[in-house]
Write a structure and sequence with these properties.
This protein has helices at about 1-25, 25-50, 55-60, 60-110, 120-125, 135-165, 170-175, 180-220, 225-235, 240-260, 265-290, 295-310, 310-330, 335-340. The protein is mainly alpha-helical.
């Protein structure tokens, strides 16, 4: 009992220390983890291209890699360019949006029978005056510059990881003390690569489909900055559950500001909800199935934990990290109950026939 208690305390202390290190070094760790995710997306996409009937088997692997990298780089470039290009247009339309917000606030006050006539002067005295505008502008500019620099750093890391990927298996064999340990480590990593690679590749494909469908609906109703919202919806698709809600909420709020309480706003809201429902409840389960084997509560809890450690990037990385942790925990007798708790059905499938340690 004392040995088990000592081991439990040691594991708890180790987890707390690792959590503190991850939080303190988030500026270093986040780009590295994102670069690993990019490699998973590239490799998973190459495998999906190879499975295309007739065309896939005829394509050389090098061509598949080149095509995937070019498409991914083009998508990232277009997204960043769209963000920078739309900034001036948003600033130009800001006065009209301000009047629309005031109108909606006034309608809301009348609906709630509140005796108030909101103006920007009153809002400024009540809220805006408490904010340091110059500091806010500097923070936003630094955030945009930091975002662009982070993309460059992630791309640089991903390039070197892709180059060294061929030698990784030899390094694992050299690190292992014996052939059995090398086979175990290789089996765990192969299982992680298979699950996360397939998940991220399919999520990327579903995100593109979701973004295109939502862009078509938003363009049809005349929503301004439809392309920017479509990119945001595609990115939010990587965040389970909450991402779908935000992907509907943000364009709906924009339509409320642009159109007011009108049929366009209601039609857009219903259309986006239907698209998200079909993608999230029909295509997503059909393509992904139970490959991750994570319980919904474990996904939400991991999102809360990693968001508190790494902020918004943690929400995007929560699922891949939790899948990796569950597979690793399933290989050891002491941590196997954790893997069972994280699983969806209590049954573990590690992809290996080796006994746990």
């Amino acid at each position: 009992m004392n040995d088990q208690l000592q081991a439990s305390v040691s594991v708890t202390v180790l987890v707390l220390v690792i959590g503190w290190v991850l939080y303190a070094g988030r500026t270093v760790f986040v780009p590295i983890v994102f670069s690993i995710i990019v490699i998973y997306v590239i490799v998973g996409s190459v495998r999906m291209l190879g499975r295309i009937p007739v065309v896939g088997p005829a394509l050389p692997v090098s061509i598949c890699y080149a095509l995937t990298i070019v498409l991914l780089a083009a998508a990232i470039f277009l997204a960043v360019d769209m963000l920078v290009a739309n900034k001036d247009a948003m600033l130009a339309l800001a006065p009209r949006y301000q009047e629309s917000v005031l109108t909606q606030l006034h309608k809301g006050a009348l609906l709630l029978r509140i005796d108030i006539d909101p103006t920007w002067d009153s809002l400024w005295r009540g809220i805006v005056a408490q904010v340091n505008i110059q500091s806010l502008i500097r923070t936003m500019a630094a955030s945009l510059s930091g975002f662009i620099i982070s993309i460059f750093v992630v791309a640089l890391y991903a390039c070197f990881l892709l180059i060294e990927r061929r030698m990784f298996a030899d390094k694992l064999t050299a690190m292992a003390p014996n052939a059995q340990s090398a086979a175990r480590i290789r089996g765990v990593i192969d299982d992680i690569n298979h699950r996360i690679g397939a998940y991220l590749a399919l999520k990327t494909l579903l995100g593109l489909v979701l973004g295109l469908l939502c862009w078509g609906v938003m363009k049809l109703v005349g929503l301004e900055f439809a392309g920017l919202w479509a990119v945001l919806i595609a990115l939010l698709n990587y965040i389970p559950y909450i991402g779908s809600v935000l992907g509907i909420l943000f364009p709906a709020l924009m339509s409320l500001v642009q159109f007011g309480q009108s049929g366009e706003m209601l039609g857009l809201l219903i259309s986006l909800a239907v698209i998200h429902f079909v993608i999230g409840n029909v295509l997503d389960p059909y393509l992904l199935g139970n490959s991750l084997n994570l319980s919904p509560f474990a996904i939400l809890a991991s999102m809360a934990i990693w968001s508190s450690i790494w902020g918004v990037p943690g929400a995007f990385l929560a699922v891949p990290i939790t899948v990796s942790a569950a597979i690793i925990c399933s290989q050891f007798t002491m941590t196997r109950p954790i893997a069972v708790l994280l699983s969806k059905n209590g049954r573990l499938s590690t992809g290996m026939d080796l006994p746990v340690l």
